[in-house]
Amino acid sequence: MSARRTVGRLGAAARLTGVRALAAAAAGLDSAVGGRSTAALPAGAEIVALAAMHRFRARVDAARRRVPGLRLDRHGIPHVFGTGVDVWRGLGFATAAARLFQMDLVRRRAAGRSSELLGPDLAEQDARQRPLGFACYAERIVAALSADQRQMLDAYAEGVNQLLRAAVPWEYAVLGRAPEPWRPADSVLVVQDLFQQLTDPAVDSLEAAFADAPVPHGRGTGLTGEPLTDAVAADRLRAALRGARGGGAPVPPEPAVGSNGWVLAADRTAVGGPLLANDIHLPLGSPGPLFFVRLTVDARPAHGFALPGVPALVAGANADVSWGLTRLCGRTARRLPAAAAPLLCDRTEELAGTNRTVRVRLAVAGPVLPDGSVLRWTALDPEAVDFGLARLVTARSVPEACEIARTSGAPPTSLLVADAAGRTGWAPAGRLLAADSEKLVPAADVPQVLDPDSGLLVAANQDLGVLLPDGSPVTVNAYPDARARRITALLDSRRDWRPAGLFGVQYDADAAFFRPWAELFARHAHSRPRARAALLAWDGTAGTGARGLHLLALAHDLARQEILAPLSASSSGTPGLTPPSLSGLDDELAELVREEDPSLLPAGHTSWPAFLSWCVEAADRYLTQILGPNAADLPWGRVNRARLRHPLAGRLPRLARLIEPPGTPLAGCTQSVSVAAGGFGAAMRMVADPAAGTLWANWPGGQTADPLDPGHRALLADWVGGRARRLPLPAEPSTVTEPDRTGAP
Fold it and tell me: Does the pLDDT of residue 713 top 90, yes or no?
């Protein structure tokens, strides 16, 4: 294998395992919040920025007083109250006042227009994105919305534009640009951007590798805590690899995915009712990806986390119900024949500020891919994208909340819910494709689970063991069950849970997922004695003091890429798509490696021991190159650090410390309950007591993108240190209270 090929694969793997965090600034890696330029502006730009910050803050404070039904506490948490339409208008203003630049970046990223604002460094990203046609399909989705949802989006956009008429965020003064007005279709673009993060459009190509049978799910832990076993998963993986010998590109590195959620029935808690926990993991930035808000809609209070740009709470509570969401690995895409649907457009578009053009061919059913096929993707379907989840704010019971989820269009997620009456439940939110056609599963056929006998519901991106009426699984190509297995084991260890204990579970850093690989690599790493010693010394966790994990994780991802290369989907070169990862079969993969079957040996290697030794040596050499001669001995916290990037920090180096917090050591890895990988991690952590309507929560940084606001980094220390804030339901508008600061819930 060539050195260039090895370094390329290691670089891809390292970006997701967190070990390139120390080199991120030098490498100029893209920010998770939509693009990052390292080209510094003249020194005067810092003066312009500071003046714009002061000007924006003064004008926003004045304009806020003219918004009916809007209050703001000292931490930047808004409380919006009134009728439904008035609340959404006020929420639009409050969100734009804190996050407009972030909202703009997301809509541009989805539409393939980032380079227009941030410069030609992002032209390549736009060139990949534009052919998906999100902007065109967003308009079609808006046109198909119900009257009440359209009214909600119109009101939200009015609130955003009310802010824009009063003040322009400081970032635009630095860039010398004016922000565009917000439109209802822009809220759809924000939802579509989340689709792109949470769904897997290439999974149907992977299914073809398994002879038209479902992708095996391997060993797992189901939704209600029961063990799942696919007895033939290893056999089918072995057969698929043998059948695909002789070609294929590397599969992608182990993805950074990590949302967790669980519900405990009353007989498992010490509070006299159920408890719900949710930690949504997303790409992180400065500010964070979610926005905490308080709402009182028609005299009914609620609070929780909103996605900036979208009038809905993705997780939260009202006086009756608490809810949370995690990613559901469901079937959302299928490739259709070239003549599957008439074309909406076939045109060439220029990327602004460059001499590049891209061809955009869009059919009614979806974008036309380079091979002529059509991508049928729920992210682009008016029947699968809407804003029905906004009704959770006023839901009164678990069955009502589950029905809202089953009939709403959204990126496929698991809704976990508990209510003040003591009921618990789960239902998929978002529409799924049927297993044998391009049609959507009818809402009436979408399953739900209410009040399970186990008293436990756990959704951590694993195979859930839930079937559709036709016998096909709800989940496909799910992620490893290591987190679900660990969460279930911890929750089963006692039956007197309180919110403080559940918050501790969310910060668990056990990394036993890697244990089989540590043994395999250490057995054959004699050519690298220091690396072998680090593997043997690893303590089995992703704690900040754990040694050897960065080497182990990188060698593991390199081994996966090489072994599974024959199964890679033929989607290289397809805009916006990457091959599925098959990460849910990691236990089975380790089993095949232990067998040392020569017919499965990756090309270019002479034996399995030599291959495993090569993985360790290549990983060690790479780490030594970027971290120094003692790389193998470094603790995990030295290489796994929070990187809350602001896209303008590189242009304003003298203000970088003001607008972007310094890297902080983080416990957790891609396969621990607390998922942490540099620019990816918990966008929020929340524990809810439905009977009390109270949340305990934290989130990275603070509420606002204004570096001069006291709330800019108000919660960063809590998020890193595992502390929570107690957040009661909103009080009457005339007596809005401050959140109580507590060391533990």
Answer: no
Give the ranges where 653-736 is alpha helix by DSSP (H): 656-659, 716-721
Q: Supply the mean pLDDT for the chain.
A: 87
In a domain, 371, yes or no: yes
* Mode of pairing for the β-strands spanning 78-82 and 291-297: parallel
- Give 432's contacts (C-beta < 8 A, 6+ positions apart): 330, 331, 332, 378, 412, 440, 441, 446, 468, 474
pLDDT confidence tier of residue 650, bands split at 50, 70 and 90: confident
* Cβ contacts of 186 within 8 Å, gap of 6 or more: 103, 107, 138, 157, 309
Q: Where are the alpha helices (DSSP H) in 371-465?
A: 398-406
Q: What is the DSSP string of 196-209?
A: HHH--TTHHHHHHT
Q: Is residue 566 part of a domain?
A: no
- Cα 144 to chain center, whole Å? 27
Q: Are 117 and 174 in contact (CB under 8 A)?
A: no
Give the dihedral sign, CA 7/11/14/18: positive
**Phi and psi angles of residue 606, each rounded to the nearest 5 degrees, phi first:** -95, -25
- List of long-range contacts for 698-702, beta carbons under 8 Å, 24+ apart: 698/723, 698/724, 698/725, 699/288, 699/290, 699/292, 699/305, 700/284, 700/288, 700/642, 700/644, 701/286, 701/287, 701/288, 701/644, 701/661, 702/75, 702/76, 702/287
Q: Measured between alpha carbons, how far apart are the two ends of the chain, in Å?
A: 53
The rounded distance, in Å, linking the Cα atoms of 289 and 307 is 7
Question: pLDDT tens for residues 194-221?
Answer: 999 888 676 555 444 444 455 555 567 8
Rounded alpha-carbon distances, angstroms, from residue 519 to 238, 556, 622: 22, 11, 21
Return the CA Rg of the chain. 25
Structural domains counted in the chain: 1
Q: Which amino acid is at 73?
A: D
Read off the tokens for 680. 């990816």
| Among the listed residues 265, 241, 189, 257, the one whose alpha carbon sits nearest the alpha carbon of residue 566 | 241
Give DSSP secondary structure letters for 350-407.
EPTTSS-EEEEEEETTEEBPTTS-EEEEGGG-TTT---GGGGGGG--SHHHHHHHHHT
Tokens of 468: 């559709």
Report in angstroms the alpha-carbon separations of 112 from 616, 669, 711: 39, 31, 32
Give counts: helices (H), strands (E), the chain: 23, 27
- Helix, strand, coil share of the chain (percent; to 5): 40, 15, 45
The span from the CA of 594 to the CA of 608, in Å, is 9
Q: What is the separation of C-alpha 640 from the centre of its chain, rounded to a whole number of angstroms?
A: 18
**Residue 92's pLDDT is what?**
98
d(CA 587, CA 503): 28
CB-based contact 512:672 (threshold 8 Å)? no
Phi-psi region of 119 (alpha: psi -120 to 50; beta: other; left: phi over 0): left
Question: CA quadruple 695, 699, 702, 704: dihedral positive or negative?
Answer: negative
One-letter amino acid at 364 equals V
The dihedral built from the CA positions of residue 137, 140, 146 and 148, taken in this order, carries a sign that is: positive
Contact 384, 440 (CB under 8 A): yes
CB 275 within 8 A of CB 158: no
Paired with 698 in beta bridges are: 685
Q: How many CA atoms lie within 13 A of 437 on its CB side?
A: 5
Question: What per-residue confidence (pLDDT) applies to 126?
Answer: 95
Element (H, E) at 90: helix 84-111
Q: Is the pLDDT of residue 311 over 90?
A: yes
Domain for residue 364, yes or no?
A: yes
Contact 55, 125 (CB under 8 A): no
Question: DSSP label at 663?
Answer: P
Residue 439 carries which side chain, given as an amino acid letter? K
Please give the structure tokens belonging to residue 327. Answer: 């990613």
User: Does residue 369 sit within a domain?
Assistant: yes
What domain range includes position 357? Answer: 336-380
Strands (E), 616-677: 641-642, 664-665
Do 712 and 701 touch, CB atoms closer than 8 A? Answer: yes
